[in-house]
Amino acid sequence: MGTKLIIDTDPGVDDAFAIALAALSEDVDLLGVTTVYGNVSLESTTRNALRVLQLCGRADVPVAAGASRPLIHPQPFRAAHVHGADGLSGRSGSLPEPDREPEPGGAVRLMVSLLEAAEEPVTLVPIGPLTNIALLLAAHPEVREKIGRIVVMGGGLAHGNTTAAAEFNIWSDPEAARRVLVEEDLPRVLVPLDLTYRCAVDTAWLAKLAGTGPVGAGLEALTPDYLASYRKTLGWDGIALHDAVAVAEAINPGILRTEALPLEVECSFGPGRGATLVDRRRAAVRNEDRSGSAVEVATDTDLDGLRDFVLARLTR
Q: Is the Cβ–Cβ distance between 256 and 248 less than 8 Å?
């Protein structure tokens, strides 16, 4: 049927756009959606995922709730100041009530069952904290052969958004992020803030989306708190669709230009906790004696082409 995806998410406004992007793409087989704490509580992220799928007419996609906290150390705070108290600008109630309940057994069990049943490689798309993915890979190494790629939204090469050094998803559980991004050798793509900020869309783009029908209008209606926050971050009226950029790469490999680079995740308790340290020195002078393998880091794209791709898929 097309690219097989499992999305692991913490909706979140940009997560809602990302889920819809996959759910509405005819060339995507969205096998399942798993949820994790992050922008808001696990209860809220799970409810939001179910409602977004219902909005998209995709109640057939199974949803399972995963980790409610990081692997080791508590998450100091969540992102309600960006996404609203319910994760969707206080407007989650504007979405339709879901027809189905979360799957019993939880996120890791659902991912294992979907991967075991898959006859083709599956792309995992974690767009929240990496706790569920770290747990999956640690507890069920036998499913690694079914994973084609892991496309992660997270990290920052030049700076963070939650602290000066750290991006929110990595900062929320640095130990899990290090397990996935440094210690694994599966094919991985990291889609960092440096690029996703550049892919931000303006209010004219959002207005165009809202005018396309009930799904577009439903998604645009979730953005007021997010827009107010990004007005301060960007300095103009627009929003960053961070997670949708990662899903675009998962759907259409190569839509983002990447470079294979070694990286580390800072797990200390200093001001750099949660930073992604990407070695961008020339290969001839890099220290090759490190654990793990290089990660494909997304560094560029056709910005207008990417925006057009997302809009076209959301308005199909």
A: yes
